[in-house]
Amino acid sequence: MPSPADLESIILHTIASSGEVADSGKLAADQGVDHNVLVGVIKSLSADELISESTTPNSKWDLTEEGKAILATGASPEFQLFNAIPADGISLNQLKTQLGQVADVGFRFAMQNKWIAIDKSSGESTIQRKVDSVEDKAFNLLRDIGAASRDLAADDKEAIALAKRKVANLTSWKTFKLTKGANFALERKKAATDLTSDMITKGTWRQETFKPYNFAALGRPPSGGHLHPLLKVRTQFRKIFTAMGFEEMPTNNYVESSFWNFDVLFQPQQHPARDAHDTFFLLNPASTPASSFPPDYLQRVKTTHESGGFGSTGYGYAWQEAEAEKNLLRTHTTAVSSRMLYKLAQEGFRPAKYFSVDRVFRNEAIDRTHLAEFHQIEGLVCDHGLTLGDLLGTLELFFTRLGLKKLRFKPAYNPYTEPSMEIFSYSEELGKWMEVGNSGMFRPEMLRPMGLPEGVNVIAWGLSLERPTMILYGIDNIRDLFGHKVSLGMVRKNPICRLGL
Ligand code: PHE
Questions:
Q1: 95-111: b or e for each residue (b if 16 or more CB lie within 10 Å)?
Q2: 113 Cβ below 6 A of ligand 1
Q3: Is the CB of 440 under 6 A from ligand 1?
């Protein structure tokens, strides 16, 4: 049997003398080698561009063991069954005694072919012939496949029907047509993979061809390592949300327009949170053109800010498009919720439960509980007739599942929720109450302009991922958990975590 090196030479010489190798399948057969072996040689030659290849799809039908067994009996089960039915009909049980296993399969396909019918007129159900005579097409096809005497396409409907019955099988493979490549030569010069000291001292590196680096190759995955506590708690939140039937929202944009981050949330354009103190505005690109916001929605948002609607008087100021166009690093993932709720309203309302866990940015003074960049856990439920009780219940359930049982709620204010509640959790490790999030029921001024129907409410909350993680791991200073001051030892040891994460 030729070696890979022999095959290489055969391919190159064939191309040199006749311009091509027309069919790699034929070459493999001629040389008595497995086609896969030849493919290895072809891939390696074409990687060095000695040859170029084009593929041809091939396929072949053959019989499964069951198909071969039918072939041996000389007729398909349905044909056998049909022929076993006397002129005045017969019961299925009698057929079973007569034909054995063949009866069930035969019955199914004879029914499918509309060869037979069940007659219940006499009180007892009997099987009757519906036609006088039938042709055993399934068997004929099996016979032809077995003898390879018919050219059958891969998408032949009848053959596919046999494959569904598991009596025939399609095998597909690719063969190649080979021609000269950009670096065609009869001899392959093996490229050097390493520059050796020998090559340098003897100067032979000048004549050497070096194999180019493959920068696209994947590295070996590191075998060690530890997950950061934030990642573990994030996974935990994901599991809890998914178990509660929530869908994850797409959060893959840190840059957002003020429109989606603030305006659609009924946050007035003079709100202090928009000031450079709390928001990182972008210099480049500084804005998103208002033409990219849905025009009728933009109009409804503007009107609601200016003069209200839906039972609201609005803020009574002149709403500026230019303000809504300003780009920023999203200050909360509620921007994602607003996009999703708008989408839901456009698609036609259906009850929905959404969540996300991703990064947000705030231009804040950094201290032991605040960072300029942190993770927010966002959740919302959108349905008819939701109440504050639903919000309290959902949050209780959710935090209990995370291992935080002691919760307190405090009335708060958000421009987009009414009522609003801050959420506090007690840390046993730190012996104190900590604020873990903010929540509320989205205002009609936010929901109705989106097009969500009257009577549909949304309960929502935004939590920091860092705070519960600090509580669970007993970490007192946020800078010890996230950011450039984090000690790798903390990541490795994961001090005390009540969840055993
Ligand atoms: N967006 C709020 C925040 O950043 C959280 C929140 C979300 C409050 C949803 C109410 C409803 O704190």
A1: beeebeebbebbbebbb
A2: no
A3: yes
Most distant CA pair in the chain: distance in Å?
A: 103
Return d(Cα 37, Cα 21) in angstroms, integer: 16
Atom from ligand 1 closest to the CA of residue 376: 4
Name 346's Cβ contacts closer than 8 Å, sequence gap at least 6.
Answer: 451
User: With a threshold of 0.70, does the pTM exceed it?
Assistant: no
Domains and CATH numbers, the chain: 1-65+162-217 (3.30.1370.240), 66-161 (1.10.10.2330), 230-492 (3.30.930.10)
Point out the ligand 1 atom lying closest to the alpha carbon of residue 442: 11
Per-residue pLDDT of the chain (501 residues; tens, 9 = 90+): 899 999 999 999 999 999 999 999 999 999 999 999 999 999 999 988 999 999 999 899 999 999 999 999 999 999 999 999 998 889 888 999 999 989 999 999 999 999 999 988 877 788 999 999 999 999 999 999 999 888 889 999 999 999 999 999 999 989 999 999 998 999 888 788 899 999 999 999 998 888 888 899 898 887 777 888 899 889 989 999 999 999 999 999 999 999 999 999 999 999 888 887 789 999 999 999 999 999 999 999 999 999 999 999 999 999 999 999 999 999 999 999 999 999 999 999 999 999 999 999 999 888 877 788 999 999 999 999 999 999 999 999 988 887 888 999 999 999 999 999 999 998 887 788 988 899 999 999 999 999 999 999 999 999 989 988 888 888 888 888 888 888 888 887 654 455 555
Pocket test for ligand 1, best of 438, 442, 445, 464 (most atoms within 8 A of CB): 438
Mark out the alpha helices in 151-294 (DSSP H runs). Answer: 157-164, 197-202, 229-243, 258-261
**273 Cα–ligand 1 center, Å:** 13
CA angle 307, 313, 315 (to 5 degrees): 65
Distance 411 CA to ligand 1 centre (A): 13
